[in-house]
């Protein structure tokens, strides 16, 4: 049985949630702050992973409200891409409940490094909205969306980066638009995971709600940050954060 957090802990969770929300919305890295934040207040790892989903959806909602300008005219695409990531997320949640996440921990650091590298590589891609993808390209990217949805539901760290890269090639849009699409797709993916965990696991709402308040605020601020920072700089920030998180997970998995 977990006690109601003190006022100091609640404020700490809200403040940490703001940071996590900005990282999620602007750089796809909520987990760099939110997961360790829950561990630091004594939440066990498995419950922290599930409780984190209870807060992430509010960061995503804040991101959507802050990105309405960029999302205008793109909601059909959002729903289409989210359909496949949600299917994957449901599978990933089932896998997490059936098998411990420790099975995947030794692979995660390398996955994050690859994801960070892909962000830099995708920066060399020049968007061409007039380009028509072949059927095989569409099938390939769709399968990738399902796979990254599975990963997001199962573990989640840096999954937003992979969605960002996939949408860069799928949509052929500018970084600021692709980032907004990524946040909206992520909202549906997180909502699916939250609904599943709410009925099949145990979310520590007293910890999730304060963090959710902070993440909503941070999520709203994130798109504003992106509008005032160059796409190239944002990609480098994401890559640096990827290396940082990969080193953290590498240390936890191997030492």
Automatic annotation (TrEMBL):
Give the bilayer topology: Multi-pass membrane protein
This protein is called Probable membrane transporter protein
Q: Name one Pfam family in it.
A: TauE
Taxonomic lineage: Bacteria, Bacillati, Bacillota, Bacilli, Lactobacillales
Instruction: Check the record and name the InterPro entries matching this protein.
Output: TM_pro_TauE-like, TSUP
- Where would one find the signal peptide in this protein? none
Q: What are its GO cellular component terms?
A: plasma membrane
**Organism encoding this protein:** Limosilactobacillus coleohominis 101-4-CHN
Record keywords: Cell membrane, Membrane, Transmembrane, Transmembrane helix, Transport
Please state the protein's primary subcellular location.
membrane
Q: Where in the cell is it found?
A: Cell membrane
Identify its protein family.
Answer: Belongs to the 4-toluene sulfonate uptake permease (TSUP) (TC 2.A.102) family.
Keyword Repressor attached: no
């Amino acid at each position: 049985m977990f006690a109601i957090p003190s006022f100091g802990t609640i404020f700490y969770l809200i403040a940490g949630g703001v940071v996590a929300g900005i990282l999620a919305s602007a750089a796809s890295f909520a987990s760099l702050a939110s997961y360790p934040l829950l561990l630091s207040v004594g939440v066990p790892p498995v419950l922290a992973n599930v409780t984190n989903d209870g807060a992430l959806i509010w960061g995503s909602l804040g991101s959507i409200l802050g990105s309405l300008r960029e999302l205008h005219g793109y909601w059909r695409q959002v729903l289409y891409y989210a359909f496949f990531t949600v299917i994957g997320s449901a599978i990933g949640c089932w896998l997490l409940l059936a098998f411990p996440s420790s099975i995947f921990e030794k692979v995660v650091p390398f996955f994050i490094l690859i994801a960070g590298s892909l962000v830099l590589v995708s920066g060399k891609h020049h968007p061409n909205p007039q380009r028509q993808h072949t059927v095989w390209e569409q099938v390939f990217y769709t399968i990738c969306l399902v796979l990254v949805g599975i990963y997001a539901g199962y573990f989640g760290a840096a999954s937003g980066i992979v969605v960002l890269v996939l949408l860069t090639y799928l949509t052929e849009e500018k970084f600021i638009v692709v980032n907004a699409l990524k946040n909206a797709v992520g909202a549906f993916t997180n909502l699916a995971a939250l609904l599943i965990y709410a009925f099949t696991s145990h979310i520590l709402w007293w910890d999730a709600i304060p963090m959710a308040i902070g993440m909503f605020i941070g999520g709203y601020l994130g798109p504003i940050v992106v509008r005032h920072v160059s796409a190239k700089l944002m990609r480098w920030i994401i890559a640096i954060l990827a290396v940082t998180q990969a080193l953290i997970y590498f240390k936890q998995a191997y030492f």
